[in-house]
Amino acid sequence: MKAGYVYIMASKSRTIYVGVTSDLEGRVWEHKNHVFDGFTKRYTVTKLVYFADFQDKGEAIGWEKSLKGKTRAKKSAVIEECNPRWNDLAWNWFDDEMLG
Question: For residue 48, which of 2, 81, 90, 91 is within the disulfide window of CB 3.0 to 4.6 Å?
Fold first, then answer.
């Protein structure tokens, strides 16, 4: 089991959100279902476009802070290195009934 995941969610217009979690599937589900008020709900940030897993929670938090400190262009480059089309990496994780 992984200790942590750093992930980037995006909207259709490529507004991005960087986060860290120990439960990637659960956290992505929360974003897709707008469970919490805030940035991702306001800007409809529902596509998982990047994630990295870490054995050490401290390393995950460090990478998240590093990403948050980067320019938008550098964050986009991180995404495009492994996902050049910004596809939703969680497109098939949930049944339609599980999504609100």
Answer: 90
What are the tens digits of pLDDT across the range 56-86?
999 999 999 999 999 999 999 999 999 999 9
Q: What is the pLDDT of residues 18-42, one digit of tens each?
A: 999 999 999 999 999 999 999 999 9
User: Residue 81: in which H helix or E strand, if any?
Assistant: helix 72-82
Domain hosting 94: range is 4-98
Q: How many domains does the chain have?
A: 1
Report CA-CA distances (Å) from 100 to 36, 37, 58, 71, 96. Answer: 13, 15, 33, 33, 8
The answer to whether the CB of 7 falls within 8 A of the CB of 27 is yes
The DSSP letter of residue 88 is -
